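Table 4 source record.
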Amino acid sequence: MKTLLIIDAGLGQARAYMAKTLLSTAAQKAQLELIDNPNDAELAIVLGATLPADSALNGKKVYLGDINRAVAHPELFLGEARSHATPYAAPAATALPAATHGPKRIVAVTACPTGVAHTFMAANKITTWAKEHNIEVKVETQGSDGVKNRLTKQDIASATAIILATDVPIQDAERFENVPHLQTRTQELIKHTDRYLRQALAMEKNVTATTVEDEDDLPRSAYQTFIGHIMAAISYMLPVVVMGGLMMATAKITGQFINIDHSPFSVLDKVGFMTIKFMYPVFAMYLAFSVAGKPALIPGLIGGIMSDEVYKRFFDIEGFMPSGFFGAIGIGFFVGYLVRWLNDSIHVRQQLTTIKTMLIVPLITGITLVMVMEYLINPIFGSLNQLMVVFFTSAGDTGRGFYSAMIAAGTAFDLGGPVNKAAGSVALGLNGMSETFDLTARELSIVIPSIGVGFAAFLNGRFGLPDVFSREEKTVGSTSLLLGVIGISEGAIPFILKNPRLIPVFMTGAVAGALVAITLGVKQTLPLPAIWGWPLATNVVGYLASVFIGALICALGVLYVSPKNAR
């Protein structure tokens, strides 16, 4: 049975995302097919306080349910919805806002670097807004689980408004070439949904492809270009880290119970370690790709290999210090813009284009990038890395504490943003260089803010603490706690968007948790946060205590720094 899922925007973005994910999984067992087009739906399930005034649901079976029950018992909830749904009759139609008269169909694509939170938060915002205004909508998500609800050529051709809310290059972007569309970032659309959708609807069909930017973003277009390329590359690097970490974790957990020497688990551990060592080559490869497309892929890969320990291990080079993350950034941009410049500058007859792209450009690029890496990037950034290792290592426990505090603060700064990713990449690169460098601070700081928000929702108005949360915020906070436990930091983002003063609060809590962990002798070397990595820490009790203390500091900060409490 084709089923339409409608979630009230007031229930919170994180909670809505969790409900949609759980119900989508349960729908397969319940023999229900979740769709986005109201016209094709046989059953509509509404999560919220009231039914929407939507004429598209006339005559269809509709069920109004509680989101808490949907999350707690998704399969049982779907069964109840199917059994107790009743025919729907919409109230008298109301006039659409002036800005939305005429257009009847919105299509969109959403994609963020990790492909988890922002991708689906933006999709939910677009869908909810369109349905509130009785406009047909279809949103394609390019998330961590691949492309879902793919837009066809017919979808694009029939659309009266097209929105690309993306932070990274999307698959099959050529579909939207020479097609009028609005393009923005996922965070901007989440914050200003009404503004952007009205802009998209107001665009004329006969204009050329257009990018509509937030007025406040115009002065930093160069910065946004820089960050956009880096975040795109990181989105490809993350699966490498996760895959390698999971392989190593599986082997090491198994090794706690049985002897894995000379077994497939031993191979699994080695392959996982090798996989992680390719994170910088993959990063540099896709950074160059983001700048110049496919011709820059392999040169970027070569440059990335030369920036990392893979190069040292293969040639057994004594005294070589990899240039690491910053070297990968440098060579990625260099290769990308070099390839782009060569393709634009070298003009040959059409018959010789293949020779240009397959021989001339790769040859020049290969020779140049090796020289640049060997005599410029590796010496500079390798020396800086060496100095940093010597500085922090020579300082002993103090050095480890200072380093951990820096990584923790950077990780908690923007919860998945550029600073977070940069801190993580540096930590991964230095991991294991000496006893000073591990991933404890990084993995703690991923979850402490989200869990802290959950603690704040629980403590709100209790034990003499301020009562500052609305009912909706309590729901979002509870969801944030669950997301934090499984290693997703984005649950705390709605609170930062409302109150940016919480950024230093989250940083303080993360730093405190990291320092407590060091004091208690906690150490973690595998890139797995939350429940996936806790069993692998040297001191599990100390690890959990660090999470609790850091999260409690965040919770108290959330309550006392609230605008309601500040009045």
